[in-house]
Write a structure and sequence with these properties.
binds flavin mononucleotide, alpha+beta, about 40% helix, 4-stranded antiparallel beta sheet, NADH Oxidase
Length: about 280
């Protein structure tokens, strides 16, 4: 088994995040017009693996495909998301594991006018500089390696979007755009009962919410977890008629990616297996 490593990850069409593995021996590798390719021996027939779709052929498994294909989308088309698709995604994601099978989750969907109202009200809060008042405590700042990864992400994303470092207005607009859910016509809110033990229930919410992202992908939908979407839970509760004693853990924006925008094609990086795995 050989590694396909060393390719860049943030160019549209570039498809070899470091650490991706080839199941077949790599015979040769190179670069044509800036695009990386690998020639692999697949069952004694040579194939060129140069883009995402034929890499999928190479990798085959549906699960691998879903995991590698999902990415956070930061530019959506206004095309509405059908409620049938959301129901099918929920049908699948409800099989996610939870502590003691307690399934401590509710999913409340904001679409149509409700989503537009939330986007307008969140944007307004952001525009007037209102500090976030989330139900679930959020990290205020990161240190050490976490800070490095956080800063790397911000730098790579803004560069990919063509936003200059000192273009403060464009940066502010990007952050305000989060409050419009990056144009998504639908947000899935993951809610817990206020009586529940919060840290542990949040593990369970992470479990179902990520499974929801994969299930939505299967419907052809893009997603992004949005901390920004839970900054003002009082607004979420009033617009979506959620009882005051529930807690809004996270919102996931859902919709069709606007692939004409760089914000929909950005790929984040990951540290390598060596950096995160240790056999004790
Ligand atoms: C709990 C959580 C909250 C997030 N909130 C935001 C957010 O408010 N704005 C944003 O642009 N991305 C947000 N993200 C997306 C992360 O930046 C993204 O998952 C990470 O950079 C990895 O990239 P990928 O999802 O494309 O693989 C959030 C992700 C998680 C898990």
């Amino acid at each position: 088994m050989l590694f396909l490593a060393g390719a860049t990850t943030n160019n549209p069409g570039e498809v070899f995040p470091s650490g991706w593995q080839s199941l077949s021996p790599v015979i040769s590798a190179g670069n044509i017009e800036g695009r990386t390719f690998r020639i692999v021996d697949r069952n004694s027939s040579l194939r060129i693996v140069s883009n995402y779709s034929n890499m999928m052929e190479e990798y085959g498994m549906e699960l691998t495909k879903a995991v590698l294909e999902r990415k956070s989308i930061r530019a959506f088309l206004p095309t509405p998301v059908s409620r049938e698709a959301i129901v099918r995604a929920t049908e699948l994601c409800r099989w996610a594991p939870s502590w003691g099978n307690t399934q401590p989750w509710e999913i409340v969907i904001a679409d149509g006018d409700k989503c537009r109202t939330l986007a307008d009200r969140f944007y307004e809060e952001g525009r007037r500089g209102a500090p976030p008042r989330p139900n679930i405590e959020m990290p205020i700042e990161f240190s050490d390696v976490y800070k490095r990864r956080y800063m790397d992400l911000g730098r790579a994303l803004l560069t990919h979007m063509g936003i200059e470092r000192d273009d403060k207005d464009a940066r502010i607009q990007h952050y305000l755009n989060m409050y419009r859910f990056f144009g998504a016509p639908c947000v899935a809110y993951f809610i817990i009962d206020g009586k529940l033990n919060e840290p542990y229930s949040c593990l369970d919410i992470g479990s179902i919410a990520t499974t929801f992202c994969y299930a939505a992908l299967q419907e052809g939908l893009g997603t992004i977890y949005l901390a920004a979407s839970m900054h003002f839970p009082d607004i979420v509760k009033s617009v979506l008629e959620i009882p005051a004693d529930k807690k809004v853990v996270i919102g996931i924006a859902v919709g069709y990616p606007d692939d004409s925008k760089p914000a929909a094609t950005f790929r984040s990086d990951r540290d390598s297996v060596d950096q995160i795995l240790r056999f004790a």
